[in-house]
Amino acid sequence: MLTTSPSRTRPVIMFEYLNWLATDALPRDRAQSQRLHEPKHLINTIDPMTGNDIEDVTSHPSLVDGNLTIYFETEASRNEYRDMQLNHPNLRLPYPATDDDDRGG
């Protein structure tokens, strides 16, 4: 008959050390990540004119605006979007607009 006895070896996990504090940051954590809140490039696969989702973007027209790529269902909806007038408050400011005027939200 086989009997089991409790192990007398020291456990690998020491429960008294679970609340340890890290003293040194890893090299990757020493600088603020720029990718967390500001992605390098955005891709929009929903046609802004029709509201339809585009599953296969390889055969559809697109428009690149800074770090945003917008895909359209047809060339007509792309042209309609490009020809649309801007309705932005910076166009009616009593002083010249700067990049900081468009921040916030």
How would you sum up this structure, described in words?
With 105 residues, the chain is low in regular secondary structure. The longest helix is centred in the last third of the chain and has 9 residues. It has a three-stranded mixed sheet, with no helix packed on it. The protein contains one helix and three strands. 9% of the residues lie in helices and 10% in strands.
Widest β-sheet, arrangement of strands? 1-3-2
Tally of strands? 3
Q: Which structural class is indicated by helix and strand composition? A: little secondary structure
Q: What portion of residues belong to β-strands?
A: 5-15%
- The N- to C-terminal Cα distance equals 75 Å
Give me the strand/helix succession.
EEEH
Give the uncertain stretches in residue-range form.
none
Coarse shape: elongated
Which labels suit this protein?
little secondary structure; 105 residues; elongated; three-stranded mixed beta sheet; 3 strands
Structure summarized in a few sentences:
9% of the residues lie in helices and 10% in strands.
Topology:
Layout: E1 42-44, E2 62-65, E3 68-71, H1 75-83
Parallel strand pairs: 1-3
Antiparallel strand pairs: 2-3
